[in-house]
Write a structure and sequence with these properties.
Elements lengths: L4 H13 L2 H8 L3 H15 L4 E3 L4 E3 L1 H28 L4 E8 L2 H4 L1 H11 L3 E9 L1 H9 L5 E4 L8 E16 L9 E2 L8 E4 L5 H12 L5 E5 L3 H9 L5 E4 L10 E6 L4 E9 L5 H15 L7
Parallel strand pairs: 3-4, 3-5, 7-11, 8-9
Antiparallel strand pairs: 1-2, 5-12, 6-10, 6-11, 6-12
Helix pairs in contact: 1-2, 1-3, 1-4
């Protein structure tokens, strides 16, 4: 026994209208072909589905059963078709996004919130507090689809676009004498002990280049990958730190932020695989870029 989807739709229309003529109008077809298709369906299932009279059509018990289950089947087929279509358009599926340190706190929550509004069928798998090298490796290994990272990096398989640049600021313990000043210079930090990011991080490299230019080699007592942990060490008095300005959104008691007039800047970029043809990725990239570049317009 084989029931064609087309015949099932025809049958449901006739059963609901209880009239071949009205059903044919609803289906935008002539009545004789419709009657023929229903007869073929009855032959296929070896059962009479409709009792026909000159004025109306009534369902047999077999017809009532087919109508009930047929509606569920057609609804499910329509749902599958719509889902596959949305998946092909990049509106359904799973997107894996990695965030560098401070973007985990300032940008990631906004991305998650706005994505649920703009792409309700898209599920995000987010990974926060990552260093650029690990995110580049994750993109290359297909563990991430998109990453918010800090250039520079080297990979012939990854494309990126810079979306913002931010100055580094000083994070100092609340009890430091530096907190009495609204702004300082790099030279004011020469005698301080530092806590910082690992040497392969983009922020660490920018800081090292700035000190090298000044022919200064400060003492770094401890390095950690997570910005929240770094600021906790500052609050504990372990040392001072130079962090991206967006880190000021992380509120940890005992940490004070100060503008450093001549501090270096670091960039933030959106990165993805060059050969990634996923509609979800291609649709999401401009949305994410606008969200990062224009936070106010994006409802933050």
């Amino acid at each position: 026994m084989t029931i064609e989807t087309r015949q099932l739709r025809y049958f449901i229309a006739v059963a609901e209208e209880k009239h071949f003529g009205r059903a044919a109008e609803k289906l935008r077809m002539a009545q004789p072909p419709l009657s023929q298709q229903i007869k073929q369906l009855e032959t296929s299932v070896s059962a009479t589905l409709l009792n026909r009279s000159t004025r109306s059509v009534e369902l047999t018990p077999a017809g009532e059963l087919l109508l009930e289950r047929g509606r569920r089947i057609i609804d499910e087929l329509d749902s599958i078709s719509a889902t596959i279509k949305r998946f092909g358009q990049g509106l359904e599926g799973i997107l894996r996004i990695a965030f560098t340190g401070t973007s985990t706190y300032g940008i990631m929550p906004r991305v998650v919130r706005r994505t649920s509004e703009a792409f309700p069928g898209l599920s995000l798998e987010v990974s926060g507090e990552n260093l650029t090298p690990s995110m580049v490796a994750g993109l290359e290994a297909n563990r991430f689809d998109i990453a918010l990272l800090r250039p520079p990096f080297s990979s012939s398989h990854i494309e990126h676009t810079v979306v913002m640049s931010e100055r580094l600021v000083a994070a100092v313990p609340a009890g430091s004498s530096l907190t009495q000043r609204s702004e300082i210079f790099m030279s004011d930090l020469v005698d301080e002990e530092f806590v910082g990011y690992p040497v392969n991080s983009s922020v660490s490299q920018a800081v090292s280049a700035a000190w090298l230019k000044r022919e200064v080699q400060p003492i770094t007592t401890q390095t950690v990958s997570e910005t929240s942990t770094l600021l906790s060490l500052v609050a504990a008095g372990v040392g001072v730190a130079l962090v991206p300005e967006s880190a000021t959104s992380i509120q940890i008691g005992g940490t004070h932020f100060i503008t450093v007039r001549d501090a270096p800047s670091v960039e933030l970029a959106i990165a993805w695989r060059k050969n990634d043809t996923s509609p979800a990725v291609r649709n999401f990239l401009p949305f994410l870029e606008d969200l990062v570049r224009n936070p106010q317009e994006s409802g933050s």
